[in-house]
Amino acid sequence: MNLDILIVGVGGQGTLLASRVLGEIAILSGLDCKLNEIHGMSQRGGSVVTHVRMGDDVYSPTVLEGNADYIIAFEKLEALRWSYYLKENGKIIVNDQEILPMPVISGKEKYPSNIIEHMKKTYSVLDIDAISIAKEIKNPKSVNIILLGIFCALEKIDLDLGLKAMLKYVKPQFHQSNTIAFNKGYEIGKRY
Amino acid sequence: MKRLMIGNESIARGAYEAGVKVVSSYPGTPSTEITEFIAKYDGIHVEWAPNEKVGLEVAIGASIAGARAMSCMKHVGVNVAADPLFTSAYTGVNGGLVLVVADDPAMHSSQNEQDSRFYARSAHVPMLEPSDSAEAKKYIKLAFYLSEKYDTPVMIRLTTRVAHSQSLVDEESRNNIELKEYKKDVSKFVMMPVMARGRHIVVEQREKKLLNDLENNEINVNRIEYRDKKVGIVCSGVTYQYVKEATNASIFKLGMVYPIPTKQISEFAKSVDELIVIEELEPFFENQLKAHGIKCHGKSITGLQGELSTGAILEKYLGKTINKPNKNLPNRPPVMCAGCPHRSVFYALNRLKCTVTGDIGCYTLAANYPLNAIDAVVCMGASVGMAHGFDKAKSEKSKNLVAVIGDSTFVHSGITGVINSVYNNGSSTIIILDNSTTGMTGHQDNPTTGKNIKGEPTYKLDLEMLLKACGVEHVLVVDSYDILAVKNAVKEAISKDEVSVIIARRPCALLNRNYPKPYYVNQETCKKCKACLQIGCPAIENLENNGVRINPELCVGCGVCTQLCKFNSILQEV
């Protein structure tokens, strides 16, 4: 198995945890793995991207443009911004949330409309209102876990292996609630 | 067992395993996490120094005393530490001495993209450059070994993509090495002219010996990977990974990037039809190879700026078409956080139409729209010296002049600027943004916070007392959130014909996240004047119907915006 994944969002949304869980999935699957993340000034509310690569031998820590199998997006505009990394039959799992960037907040630019419809013309897009689901299961901070669950189901990663990887990076007091979130995402993913 | 580690953690792990005993560094992206990870191990003295020069000097002292010692910094930090670096190359070491430098090609979080390899060549110290985390650990251990074997400081160069990429690393146990015996030796450790002349000869001999051992594979750190022999590529660091993936060429991988074995590379060149050098930033290898009469090319393909990648090599070298980003999307630039105490200070400076020399930190973002409140930023501490120079130039704009600097940056290299301004009859106004932390690099403690790197209590530098001792009579302390107080303090300070310092004090909004209730806009009384948008808070949104709203998910209840609203239309939720 060779998999190239981009996790994209806005600084502070918790993309790093998601990438670490994917890294653990690679290790548990006996694969080589590299992750690339951004620290520093660009994190302050800026656009952030984490690269995840797994396979028999991984060299570059970053994904080649046009070669990503998946983009897991925590925010819509970021999904669109990074979509050029996706390969032709690649998939976008996108959280249906808008976070306005500064040029939009200040009225200088407009947030693009119909992002999901636009992306669907070119890519296979799974859009999901993960915030509502997170609220439903009374764990508003579990958006990233739900998206990970969806990814694991789409990629047919064993549920128990995915759970084990996720729980390694979640504090014990949140194990139960995040297990529910992960299962919920996995169920949604299985339906696609 | 193998574990995923970022390059920086792997350097920390390797230093621990190599028996490092003293580490002194100054934070700077992308190097910061090295020292933070080392602080988690017991049995090592780890500290944040006030700047890179002190950090390296501490490491030099520990090395002379017989301990393995290390100092870590970002590329521009080496400029600050260059003075001790160059002369420590003359003294050599006792315990192994390693300087880790993290370069930032593409300037993800830096003010320039200088190439640290030139420092190794100028100072005549060997430099290693790993290509992933596993190699980072191997090389730091090798660096300590080489340092002691050849009696020289050794540099390790990382770039952002190695420092902040995770890959699999094997953990091994710590080598608990004994302190080496310290013997007084003034001819080696006291660098006055007569001794230094002798040591300069030693430096040249050492480098010759090291290069000879490198050419003879006694130092086993470079390697050749033969693939297609039509093209041979010389590369190092993360670029090796890109080359490996993008091409099928034969590779001469340099693990040691200074000095380089030109005899071996010359032989390699003969074994392939064409020799290419693929390196980020400067033509460091290329020019050395050309100087040795080895026919090659590189920078004519890759250019001098930014990072390379698998895609960049496919495109620039192999002429492939690579997907490009959509340029018509709104940018999402980094911004000061909601509740950031810097914002209100810069808003006040904007309103007062001040000319502002700025400094390095999150607050550099105040140069952007809508605050537009910074005129010049150069390097750590420069705001203070630049303000004095601007003042002495007596331009029309010198009258409303203010220097702005953060607390950690002030301790790093702003203090000497203040001493200079007072000593030379300056009249500039300096604002110290005291947010009780080193914010941009991820909240490190510093001498003004009263805590050390391990979070233990220590002496808290008293800025007011320090400034008085420097001869600043006019020191004012204001609450950063209080726009009127900041304005009044600035007006008073710039009217004085002496150096004045305003300490704008308020902790970073990310430190204590026990936020009060958010604010909201009373749409019935709001006159849509949009004065509140002028402060550039990410929680205040311009609505399409021409109104304004406060996003309750982002608002942290600082209430600064209420000071901008003349109609009392911004209210706090109850």
Report on the architecture of this protein:
- The complex is a heterodimer of chains A (about 190) and B (about 575).
- Chain A has about 190 residues and is α/β, with parallel strands linked by helices.
- Chain A has a single domain (about 5-100, about 115-190), classed as Pyruvate-ferredoxin Oxidoreductase, domain 3, CATH 3.40.920.
- Chain A contains 8 helices and 6 strands, in the order βαβββαβααβαααα.
- Chain A has helices at about 15-30, 75-80, 100-105, 115-120, 130-135, 145-155, 160-170, 175-190, and strands at about 5-10, 30-35, 45-55, 70-75, 85-95, 125-130.
- A 6-stranded mixed beta sheet of chain A has the order 2-3-1-4-5-6, sandwiched between helices.
- In chain A, α5 (about 130-135) packs across α6 (about 145-155) and α6 (about 145-155) packs across α8 (about 175-190).
- In chain B, about 35% of the residues lie in helices and about 20% in strands.
- Chain B is built from 19 helices and 22 strands.
- In chain B, α16 links the parallel β14 (about 355) and β15 (about 400-405).
- In chain B, α3 (about 50-65) packs parallel to α4 (about 75-90) and α16 packs parallel to α17.
- In chain B, about 55% of the residues are buried.
- The model of chain B has no long low-confidence stretch (mean pLDDT about 95).
- The chains are: A alpha/beta (about 190), B alpha/beta (about 575).
- Chains A and B meet through α1, β2, α2 and α3 of A and β1, β8, α10, α14 and β20 of B.
Provide a quick synopsis of the model.
The complex is a heterodimer of chains A (192) and B (574). Chain A is of the alpha/beta class and 192 residues long. In chain A, 40% of the residues lie in helices and 22% in strands.
